[in-house]
Amino acid sequence: MLTPTKRNPWHRGAGRVLLTSLALPGLLLTALALFTLADRSLLLHPAAAPLPGVTVHLPLSAPAAESPAPDAPAVPPEEPECEEAAAPAEAVPTDRGVHLQLLDGEQTLDVTLEDYLWGVVSAEMPASFEDEALRAQAVAARTYTVYKLLHPTKAHEAQLCSDPGCCQAWLSREDRMAKWGSDREELAQRITDAIRDTDGMVMCYGGEPIQAVFHAASGTATRSAEEVWGSEVPYLHSVSSPEGEEVPNYYSTVSVPAAEFAAALPDCHLEGDCSGWIGDTEYDESGLSRRICIGGTWVDTTKLRSLFSLRSSNLSLTGDGDTLTFSVTGYGHGVGMSQYGANAMAQQGSRWQEIMEWYYSGAKPENLADKPLGLG
Questions:
Q1: How far is CA 19 from the centre of its chain?
Q2: How far apart are the first and last CA of the chain?
Q3: Which of 310, 305, 318 is nearest to 273 (CA)?
Q4: Could you give the CA distance from residue 73 to residue 247 in angstroms, rounded to a whole number?
Q5: Is 297 domain-assigned?
Q6: For the whole model, what pTM was predicted?
Q7: What pLDDT, in 10s, does the model give residues 31-88?
Q8: 143 and 200 belong to one structural domain
Q9: Nearest-5° angle of CA 220, CA 222, CA 226?
Q10: Quick check: is 197 in a domain?
Q11: CB-side neighbour CA atoms (13 Å) of 357
């Protein structure tokens, strides 16, 4: 926030001229009686406001200098003494003050939130992404972590784990650095900067940290939580997302033998040529596939994604001979922030706050330092 700059008022000195004219026979005497310049130095050099912690000795008006006695050297004026301003104490990052237990494989680690987030952001998003996208990822990861800490499950004794299917992906700094190439130091610094630039910031809805889920890439729009998981969440609605063919494998296909397909869907009536097994497709209001009629039975695309390990539930299905083929767009469950969408928004000039508020409807960024959540 910019603070308006206050100008130091100038003290205007008074200059007075007394002109006396006396007319005498044969003589005109004109006397210039007085011209006061006591404050002229202030008019030319307004006094600056003293800096905090600094004492400045400036006389309002300099006294007239006396001429030195003959053969006496001129004595230079003493330099005013200034007290050095004390350097402000370095603030301790909020993330560094929160400790948590992390299950990584078979070992439980005690790590700070700052170190945990470094492992999450470096594992979840390419470090080459735009700075604002990395900041958005840091805030999403921090918010999701805080939500998990405040709403613990019994999946494991530790507060969090490194399994992305349960919590979030996580890599130790050593493992992450080993996987990067010769530019590892630069990439590591970008992750560090993204976390420290957003220290303590989380997304809140109604003052409470949200379940800030995210995914890799949407198929033109995100999905609502209700569409995917069956429960309406006010800040997880479907919104458009700007990513596209820059996403690796944005379009993908998966072919499944007819016999395997039929075995996975025993409730569907699947006989004869598989080209006749596929009926209509129903779409949601964002234009994403919701369910497909297969063998006379409606099947949710989210279920098809799970059954056949598809990259996304935004798909179409065709049958030919003894093979069925899925055509898939995007990657991930499609709910919350799209990582490639965040990067596209950052390339278009969006700040991390704008990215987060776009993907999490009605949520606002707040600082953990201002919230008594009892994290430690």
A1: 71
A2: 30
A3: 318
A4: 80
A5: yes
A6: 0.75
A7: 333 333 334 333 334 444 433 433 333 333 333 334 344 444 445 556 555 555 555 5
A8: yes
A9: 145
A10: yes
A11: 9
